[in-house]
Amino acid sequence: MFDAPDEIIDLTNPIDNGIPVWPSFPPVDLKHESLAARDGFTMEKVTMRTHTATHVDSPRHFIPEGRTLDEFPVSKFMGEGVVVDLTDVGNSAAIGVDDLAQYEDEIDAGDVVMLNTGWDQYYGTTDEWMFEFPHLSGDASEYLADLEAKAVGIDTPSVGGWYDEVPGHGPSTDVHPADSHLPLLENDIIPIEELRNLDAVRGDAATRRAYFLYPPLNFQDTSGSSVRAFAFL
Fold first, then answer.
1. Is residue 85 in a domain?
2. Domain of 61: which CATH number?
3. Whole-angstrom Cα distance, residue 221 to residue 165?
4. 3 in a domain, yes or no?
5. Strand 94-95 to strand 135-136: parallel, antiparallel, or no bridges (unpaired)?
6. DSSP E strands: which ranges in the chain?
7. Residue-range definition of the domain harbouring residue 50
8. What string of H, E and C letters represents the secondary structure of 132-184?
9. Of 27, 76, 128, 151, whose CB is crowded by the most CB atoms within 10 A?
10. Helix crossing, 138-146 with 177-185: angle to 10°?
11. How many domains in the chain?
12. Residues paired with 53 in a beta bridge
């Protein structure tokens, strides 16, 4: 018999028409196609990019011949790991090796490494959330790959910073998104992006271990998928 976890913490952002999306993406379109009162049943239609809300990336996201999500076993999307405190990083900061090295003794090979920047406090159509979020430097991504992480999660829109330009905002970093992503994806390390509530997992400690689930839908031949992510304590 399996013992139930003492606590389950939802790490997932909501999905509705008004959620913030990557600034160059179209908004989510969620609408009722049928209504039970009128049609005898209710059904919705959802149109959105696969890298929307809380989601995972596969190597195909940046590597033309990289693996797609369906090419991994479902066990790739769950596992034991650790949340680490990075809440002292600032706007648009590139998280460096020194920020992570202080926790090296807490990270085991095969861990799901969750980076708690606290950026979910800015969630919404704010400059901080959409453009000025912390992200991994290339060296930091290589460092996590060297530690043999299974997955790397972050409570910002992406492991890579805002490098593009839209009418209301220019680039916020000189770190190219490929530099942040490729060291992970080339080693089949799954980025988990746009998480929330990692502080609730960590509590008052600098680190805390938990069991994490972040399974994608069983899409075929895709570079990403929204997920429902949880921490079991």
1. yes
2. 3.50.30.50
3. 29
4. no
5. parallel
6. 8-10, 29-34, 43-47, 55-57, 78-85, 94-95, 112-116, 135-136, 151-154, 190-193, 207-213, 224-226, 230-232
7. 8-232
8. CCCEECHHHHHHHHHCCCCEEEECCCCCCCCCCCECCECCCCCCCHHHHHHHH
9. 151
10. 10
11. 1
12. none
pTM above 0.90, yes or no: yes
Structure tokens at 141: 């991504």
- Note whether residue 1 is domain-resident: no
Residue 147 lies inside a defined structural domain of this protein: yes
Q: Looking at the chain, how many residues does it have?
A: 233
